[in-house]
């Protein structure tokens, strides 16, 4: 399946800048039913893409909870990503050259504006479920605040109402690694790749947990290895991301994540969350150090009638991608007729 491309009109960003010539890559699965009310819209996380069936298996796909034989599934690649939507690698219409590190700052609200424009283009007026984890959850929350009557159900996992100083510090540490690579400032294809490798190794420490590393990356007791398992794992993961992602997009999207604050200009976070009209399921992960349970509890406390549950996982933040059986269990409870909003 190939990505579909939607060309945006000139998009005014939250900063006041105009993003000209922008486009969004997206995919759909399944068919709209007669009432056009079986839509599931997926907001993806930092380095994912529009192909939700490839990165959320066990939750989306044939035989899964969100089976395209029953649902019309939509997933759009966010602006700034290197997976088909307008990114730092695309040419600036004014100059004909890629923007690289000069790509305009995008906020979560800008990413949502692109989703909203695509929704209007597709003529979808009733979205049954809006779902996302991490950066995807931030987008979903922002959109649900903006359009309280559009979504019937909202499912957010391992996310928050405002990106924390802790999360911003982790992102800045990763950007410092990328910016320390001299090829990044040169503005060229592959610029910042070595820095991106180091950034990914840093990020993994926030995505996983102490217990997960100890259980899977501890060296055998009787060996004195030249390379420790944990060391080679970090290098492997860095190489893996460099092979599929781009440093300029990584910087752009991590800055978008830092911008997330539902309460900005809305009288604070509680007031903003109080606007959400969708039936909401909030899922936290017990071992998540990047988006701790306190942030999920804040969401549930201020979203009217929200259901709150915790995934008991050893995988840390990445549990939102891996614990699909547990997520399915809570979805079944959430959608059950006995659930009271």
Task: Give a written overview of the molecule.
Belongs to the AB hydrolase superfamily. MetX family. It catalyses: L-homoserine + acetyl-CoA = O-acetyl-L-homoserine + CoA. This protein is of the alpha/beta class and 341 residues long. It contains 13 helices and ten strands. The strands form two sheets. Strands 1-4-6-5-7-8-9-10 form an eight-stranded mixed sheet, with helices on both faces. Strands 2-3 form a two-stranded antiparallel sheet. Strand 7, helix 3 (135-146) and strand 8 (151-157) form a beta-alpha-beta unit. Helix 4 runs antiparallel to helix 9 and helix 6 (193-207) crosses helix 8. The chain starts with a strand and ends in a 6-residue tail after the last helix.
Mean pLDDT: 96
Number of separate structural domains: 2
By CATH, the superfamily of the largest domain comes out as: Alpha/Beta hydrolase fold, catalytic domain
Low-confidence stretches: none
Rg estimate, integer Å: 20 Å
User: Could you say what the CATH architecture of the largest domain is?
Assistant: 3-Layer(aba) Sandwich
Largest sheet properties: 8 strands, mixed
Report the sheet-strand fraction: 5-15%
> According to CATH, what is the class of the largest domain?
Alpha Beta
Distance between the termini: 38 Å
Q: What form results from the Cα inertia axes?
A: globular
Structural class: alpha/beta
SSE order = EEEEEHEHEHEHHHHHHHEHEHH
Helical proportion, percent range:
25-40%
How many β-strand runs? 10
* Major sheet strand order: 1-4-6-5-7-8-9-10
CATH topology of the largest domain: Rossmann fold
């Amino acid at each position: 399946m190939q990505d579909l491309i939607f060309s945006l009109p000139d998009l005014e960003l939250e900063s006041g800048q105009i993003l000209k010539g922008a486009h969004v890559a997206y995919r759909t699965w399944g068919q709209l039913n007669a009432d056009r009310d079986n839509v599931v819209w997926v907001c993806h996380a930092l380095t994912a893409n529009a192909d939700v069936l490839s990165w959320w298996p066990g939750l989306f796909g044939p035989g899964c909870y969100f089976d395209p034989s029953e649902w019309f599934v939509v997933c759009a690649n966010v602006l700034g990503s290197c997976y088909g939507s307008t990114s730092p690698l695309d040419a600036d219409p004014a100059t004909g050259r890629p923007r690289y590190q000069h790509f305009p700052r995008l906020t979560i609200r800008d990413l949502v504006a692109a989703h909203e424009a695509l929704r209007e283009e597709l003529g979808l007026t009733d979205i049954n479920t809006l779902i996302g984890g991490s950066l995807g959850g931030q987008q979903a929350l922002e959109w649900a605040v903006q359009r309280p009557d559009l979504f019937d159900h909202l499912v957010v996992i391992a996310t928050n109402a405002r990106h924390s100083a802790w999360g911003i510090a982790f992102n800045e540490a990763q950007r410092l690694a990328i910016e320390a690579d001299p090829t990044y400032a040169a503005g060229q294809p592959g610029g910042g790749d070595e820095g991106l490798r180091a950034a990914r190794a840093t990020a993994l420490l926030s995505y996983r947990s102490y217990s997960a590393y100890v259980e899977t990356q501890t060296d055998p007791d009787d060996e004195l290895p030249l390379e420790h398992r944990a060391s080679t794992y970090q290098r492997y993961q860095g190489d893996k991301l460099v092979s599929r992602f781009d440093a300029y997009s990584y910087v752009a999207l991590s800055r978008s994540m830092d911008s997330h604050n539902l309460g900005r200009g809305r009288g604070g976070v509680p007031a903003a969350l109080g606007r959400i009209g969708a039936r909401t399921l909030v899922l936290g992960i017990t071992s998540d150090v990047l988006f701790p349970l306190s942030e999920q509890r804040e969401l549930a406390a201020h979203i009217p009638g929200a259901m709150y549950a915790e995934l008991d996982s050893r995988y840390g933040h990445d549990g939102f991608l891996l614990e699909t059986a547990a997520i399915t269990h809570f979805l079944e409870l959430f959608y059950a007729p006995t659930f009271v909003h």
